[in-house]
Amino acid sequence: MMNRFPSTIGIRLLPIRRTLCSTRLLPRLSPILITLSPKPRTFRHGFSTRPALRSADSPNSSSSKPSVLKENIYTLPNLLTVSRIIACPILGWSIVEGQFYLATSLLLYAGLTDLADGYLARRYNSQTVLGTILDPAADKALVTTLAVTLTMKGLLPLPLTAIILGRDALLSLSAFYIRYTSLAPPKTFARYWDFSLPSAEVRPTNISKVNTALQLVLMGATTVSPLVPMDVALGLQGLQLIVGTTTIWSGLSYIFSKDAVRLVSSKTKEKPPP
């Protein structure tokens, strides 16, 4: 005979005593049979034809889970930016050793790659959130290397170097804090340093762009000055005063600007229901 249970599994019983099944066997089998059915199914051909209950983990469930937003960080613009960062120690060594021709060549390379990575990112639509962080980081690494080594050679005043390095240090600490607070959970060490998981996008302010350009002009002119057969000290002093002012101004602009940082970790892509 056919017996049907309220569980998601039906079973065909052998002809045994009815009283034994109803009083002893069935109360024990029913919980076990319910437990043994983790996925929804519909049974036919002698089994129960009642549809099973939907599970939250079922692929047929109407609920969809948000997927983590990831991006391709291995792009040519990012590689060019990283190459500028790698060139900074060589640039610093060349200045300390008085190899100003080599230092000038590396400055020219840094300038060309800076133009190239921006053009390629826009031309081939390969902008990444990591690129918005790497590009200013490469500029700051270049400026920091030049500021420290030129100060060591006595070509740059120490107070100006302190202003430049102090502003960059505060911005770097702020970036680490923003990265932690904007990273989607779970906040693990591996996820924190996984830059394919974007969490916040840094947008330089207008005065910050002007300041970076002026800093690079000052560092480049100071680096080339030992090779120039004329006295350019007065012009460099005026440029140093301007750079000191714009450095302080740009640092304050990040505090009062509402568009300097944009959170992107809240963006998720939902899988469409099957």
UniProtKB/TrEMBL annotation:
TM spans (from-to): none
A single GO molecular function term of this UniProt record: cardiolipin synthase (CMP-forming)
Membrane topology note: Multi-pass membrane protein
Upper taxonomic lineage: Eukaryota, Fungi, Dikarya, Basidiomycota, Agaricomycotina
Keyword Protease: no
Ubl conjugation as UniProt keyword: no
Record's keyword terms, sorted: Lipid biosynthesis, Lipid metabolism, Membrane, Phospholipid biosynthesis, Phospholipid metabolism, Transferase, Transmembrane, Transmembrane helix
Name listed for the protein in its UniProt record: CDP-alcohol phosphatidyltransferase-domain-containing protein
GO process terms (BP): cardiolipin biosynthetic process
